[in-house]
Design brief:
- The structure holds 2 protein chains of 2 kinds.
- By secondary structure, chain A is α/β, with parallel strands linked by helices.
- In chain A, about 35% of the residues lie in helices and about 25% in strands.
- In chain A, β4 and β5 form a beta hairpin.
- The longest helix of chain A is centred in the C-terminal third of the chain and has 18 residues.
- Chain A is globular, with a radius of gyration of 17 Å.
- Chain A starts with a strand and ends with a strand.
- The model of chain A has no long low-confidence stretch (mean pLDDT about 90).
- By secondary structure, chain B is α/β, with parallel strands linked by helices.
- Chain B has 10 helices and 11 strands.
- The longest helix of chain B is centred in the middle third of the chain and has 18 residues.
- Chain B is elongated, with a radius of gyration of 21 Å.
- Classes of the chains: A alpha/beta, B alpha/beta.
- At the A-B interface, α7 and α8 of A face α7 of B.
- Bound molecules: iron/sulfur cluster (SF4).
- Iron/sulfur cluster binds next to loops of chain B.
Chain lengths: ~220, ~325
Amino acid sequence: MPLLDVRDLVVRYGTVTAVDHVSFALEPGETLALNGPSGCGKSTTALAVLQIRRPASGEVRFEGQELTTLTEAELRPLRPHMQPVFQDPYGSLSPRHRIRDAVAEPLKVQGRWDTDSGPARVADLLDRVGLDPSYGDRRPHELSGGQCQRAGIARALASDPRLLVLDEPVSALDPSVRAGVLNLLADLQDELGLGYLFICHDRSVVRHFADRVIEMRDGRVSSP
Amino acid sequence: MASEPLLSVRDLRIAFDGVEVVRGLSFDLHPREVLAIVGESGAGKSLTARALLGMLPHGATATGTVRPDLSAERGRRIALVPQDALSALSPVHPVGDQLAAAVRSVARVPRKEARARAVAALDRVGIPDAARRARAYPHEFSGGMRQRAVIAMATINEPDVLVADEPTTALDEERRDQVLRVLAEQREAVGAALVLVTHDLDVVREHADRALVMYAGRLTELGPADEVLTRPLAPYTAGLLASLPEHARDRRLPTLPGTPPAPGTLPPGCAFAPRCPLAADDCHHEEPEPRPAEGRLTACHHWAELPHPAVELFRDQQHASS
Ligand code: SF4
């Protein structure tokens, strides 16, 4: 069974069709890239997969379960398993929260926080993404762009996801820093068998990192 | 390059609260050339560009010389191509009026003539129906047209030097190429040199004549862009190139170990030494000065010991944690 199976996805903003009958499937441990110019619908597709933006029609199956017909309450227990990581690492972490609290938050929200073992779990997650656990005391603006993106990945991992939706995760980073974050994502995928829906406009990164690429243009798949 | 330099920068130092961020930088800019200033965040490349424009941020102090100092003639002899077209244009005035105002800010030109030049400039950057479009407001322009409009504005007074600070960072590849093409056309049309600050090595490869690589506020390497990018003579440049996905041999990419030093916490000797696979004893004691090597400048004690190809130096450095 594919991890993610998207069929005939259509997303509209008012009268504009942002995603027009897009279909693809993603296996566990696989990286599928959505590539294309800005406005091609790749980010909207990501939001629809996550059911942040509800599609107008089409199917989104996650581990066999159809998501588009579920209510918000029915989606809640599934959401932890499909986690987004966005381009702007500063924008996706609250500026006022320490990194430690940002990583702990999903555990708390999901009722999986244990006061005894929680802090060690957070330290583990930070270590796992290559951040010294002492960074837990810092706030986002005290980290570099690459470190901040790592913190964002740690936060996503806190939910024990099986799918990461990575929306331009390395686009804002310098080349060497970008290489380190891509290596980290490759390591995590190997160890945890994560599926990656990888949205990226940089062709050389896509060619290097993705198992398969779908080209999008004007809301449609222009090449399989 | 045999020509007289257009600009000579000597021992430029820029500090905040006594902490130097640019630490003694010297280079020339030649007429009509495209000089890319390359490096990672915090290397001092934007500050260097801003020093040329006389637009240093509040709290920065600069020493050294920039000759001639064109910053007093900003808008006429030297102009900035802004990164963010939307915030560079005033939302409350028609685009054509803003271009005309730019003309009249540097020369006594009748209003009507300034307007005509604004329309001509918009036409030159490929804005269709420029006479009508000149009366529109920035929000009525598409993102691509706004980018063209600010390039028209930067070049309207035919400056000698254009400075573009990461002009395409926020754009996808297609838009990036468009913007750079328009910029290249206009630069050629007015005969300006361009200082192009970027961390995108693809942009350097395609658009620059020479590349100045900076690390921790110093010159690491300076030479013809194609040579610097194909056969670097400094370990730092080699590391940057090695980390590009197009050079990858397997899924793990080479990276530079560790992180750049924060300003004010520089190691003794070469600032790159803690991250450099070639570092030897002398590197930890003596900071290398830029010296001529094979028709370029390199600031490395051991450039002659780099392997061929130089990216091999970082082949085994495939860290996920730096
Ligand atoms: S001077 Fe030494 S430490 Fe610095 S780049 Fe050259 S070899 Fe490496």
